[in-house]
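Record 1 of the preview.
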Amino acid sequence: MTHSDIASGPMGFGNQFASEAVPGALPQGRNSPQRVAHGLYAELLSGSAFTAPRADNRRSWLYRRQPSVVTGGYEALAQPGWTTGAAGGVLAPPDPLRWHPFPIPDAPADFIEGLHTVAACGDADAQSGVGALVYTANRSMVRRALVNADGEMLLVPQQGRLVITSELGVLAVRPGEIALMPRGLAFKVELPDGPSRGYVCENYGAPFRLPELGPIGSNGLANPRDFRAPHAAFETEPGAYEIVRKFGGRLWRTTQPGTPFNVVAWHGNLAPMAYDTAHFMVIGSISFDHPDPSIFTVLTSPSDTPGVANCDFVIFPPRWMVMEDTFRPPWYHRNVMGEFMGLVMGEYDAKPEGFKPGGASLHNSMVPHGPDTEAFERASGSDLKPHKLDHTLAFMFESRWRFVPTAFAMQGGALDRAYPDCWAGLKDRFAP
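->
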């Protein structure tokens, strides 16, 4: 692919960006001139309704060698591991659930073939809820692209880098970074490190955005300037491409005569984005008590109820713990929100036993959970000197809707059936 910037700088939510791979390809003053330079076609990618408020309106103009309508007819494609919404789940008890690291298969599997829904909530057609997925893949997508019409996709690599080629250019992300792929945008995933594993949030609801800062003030958490967008680029190799489209909870395929990655220039505020979680400005207590995990929110997908998210993407990165006379790990609690959690690297301070990188846990609405016995004993008796939780990164997809586990999750072999035993040592210690 080739590219040549005319504009550079940070790509944030709501920020405008412009990039061209060939000088003069980007129109000036008009979005759709009668004749686009170099014989290109103008095409609008809308990520919101035309009449959405200006602050919420997301769209980008693409100038491409062929419009995306140039495809053949679609036929059904089987991919039983990738289900959609609560309807794709199975009956599951109101227990805390945990999974061992999901194994990477020996049989060839690219990113699409390696996707499996672990739990989901809501309904893609109703544009509410999310799917919590894992990907376990061992080969790159070659002459194959994915278009998800059901929702945007937040990719969280855990093992192996991802090189993501999209219509707007190329992004590379490694474990510790994330990538956000807009709904309806074609992309493919290459695996430069071979066998790879990670997590995906398929967001059917309102697009992710930065949370409001409120009393925190004008600085903190994730800063818009740290999100990066791709430079315009296009493929020149001839030949057919398989297009896999997710539409209405099902997968469909077609073969088109050329590459979908033929955008020579683009401008707008709807684009793939990558973010390094090391740039997250952590907020925490410097006196006493363990604050709510909402202070670790990187991105939020709001619902129609203010303050109650369709989905929050929350991270638990390296940070200093300095609170006095405080039980420093997360407290025991029940939450109206459902919490799907994954571990990218290191150890999670509330679950030193059993919760491993590449695994996951699910604590649904009002399901009690909290530190295991080992974490409780260690935190209750430790010398409360300032110390740093280092070399760790956990995350959470949190939603107002009840997560429904899938058959893959409950019967696929990774379920940790001994998980409830981690609290068995918490005896009645009452001594009046």
